[in-house]
Amino acid sequence: MEIYLLVIKGWNKVYFLYLDESGNTSLDKGTTYYVLLGVAILDKNTKDISEQVKELIRYIELELSNGWRKVDSSHPFSRAIKESSEEYLKVKPLELHYHDLIQGKPPYDVFDKPKRKEIADRMFEILVNNDVTLFASVINKRLHAKKYVLPIGPDLLGLEFIVGRFEHFLERQQDYGIIVLDEKGRKENLKIRNFFQDLREEGTGFKKLDKVIESIFLTPSEYTYSIQLADFAAYAVFSKFEHEKENRFREIEGKFDKIDGNLVGIKVWEPRKPTVL
Predict the structure, then answer these.
(1) Please, are residues 192 and 184 in contact by the beta-carbon 8 Å criterion?
(2) CA pair distance 270, 63, nearest whole angstrom
(3) Which of 112, 154, 163 is nearest to 135 (CA)?
(4) Are strands 132-140 and 14-22 parallel, antiparallel or unpaired?
(5) Who's near 165: CB < 8 A, 6+ residues apart?
(6) CA 134 from chain center: how many Å?
(7) Which pLDDT band, with edges at 50, 70 and 90, does 10 fall under?
(8) CA max distance for the chain
(9) Contact 192, 155 (CB under 8 A)
(10) Taking a C-beta distance cutoff of 8 angstroms, is the pair 18, 43 a contact?
(11) pTM above the 0.85 mark?
């Protein structure tokens, strides 16, 4: 409630940090790296940026339907028909996933490679051409698992690193922030909520949280366009570290948080075991 009072009274601006991940969280199998990435967007810009992603999705839907446009269903009578036929329970919105798009997985398998690249290019243009600030945690899972007897999960560690950097950013801006994360399963959601509550009450290992307020918001990414932007940026960072492919990362590198020209928006965690003498 306090955040909404701040906005209404015009005391401060609010940044929304939309988070998504790339790589898996297992410490003993799968990818070497886990990446958690956040796209920070000022409250007044969130609708415009979401509309840009939404417009791209409309373009894709039109291409998938071979130019056929759906009949406008905004009329209440049309909505009543949808409800009675249980269409609202059957339809899942089209969601942009970088990996699925580039690999040509359904529904993108009907597009050739140049068309898929064109769609990806347009998503990265939205990131580059708008006022957003990026934050990322890059966890080398293999080294992390070797260093500790009981290592914390890379998803929680990555969240702690990002929250601390976001807090520093908000202090410099003298504004407040809310964090929005792509939801997972029920148990995972509960784990994340409780971990984030600990961060709010006790702070990270280096920083008390005064500017990051409210609980973390977990929402399906298919209904949250800015999380889909985070998905593309997360995969760009992941590709740099996991596959040593830097072309997409170079496109967005300038959007990461910086202080006096120094990159502070990325935390790379590659711990080494202490040398035993």
Answers:
(1) yes
(2) 43
(3) 163
(4) unpaired
(5) 135, 257, 264, 265, 267
(6) 10
(7) low
(8) 77
(9) yes
(10) no
(11) yes
Rg (CA), the chain: 20
> Rounded to whole angstroms, how far apart are CA atoms 189 and 194?
9
- Going by their DSSP bridges, the two strands 262-263 and 258-259 should be labelled as antiparallel
Q: Hey, how many other C-beta atoms are within 10 angstroms of the C-beta on 130?
A: 15
What is the 3-state composition of the chain as percent helix, strand, coil, each rounded to the nearest 5?
50, 15, 30
pLDDT digits (tens, 9 = 90+) for 30-68: 999 999 999 999 999 999 999 999 999 999 998 888 754
* Residue among 60, 61, 87, 59 at smallest CA distance from 73: 87
Amino acid at 219: T
Angle at Cα 217 formed by Cα 238 and Cα 136, nearest 5°? 25
Strands (E), the chain: 14-22, 33-42, 132-140, 176-182, 217-219, 258-259, 262-263, 266-269
Q: How many CB atoms are closer than 10 A to CB 112? A: 10
Residue 33 pairs with which residues in a beta bridge?
140
In one-letter notation, the amino acid at residue 228 is Q
Cis peptide before 274 (omega within 30 of 0): no
Q: Residue 185 pLDDT > 60, yes or no?
A: yes
Residue 231 structure tokens: 């998905």
- Cα–Cα distance between 229 and 123 in angstroms, integer? 7
What's the rounded mean pLDDT across residues 193-216?
Answer: 89
The two tokens of residue 202 are: 């006790």
Q: 2-269 maps to which CATH number?
A: 3.30.420.10
In 3D space, the residue among 256, 252, 217, 30 whose CA is nearest the CA of residue 137 turns out to be: 256
Tell me how many degrees the CA angle 223-227-232 measures, rounded to the nearest 5. 125
Phi-psi region for residue 174, left (φ > 0), alpha (ψ -120 to 50) or beta?
Answer: left
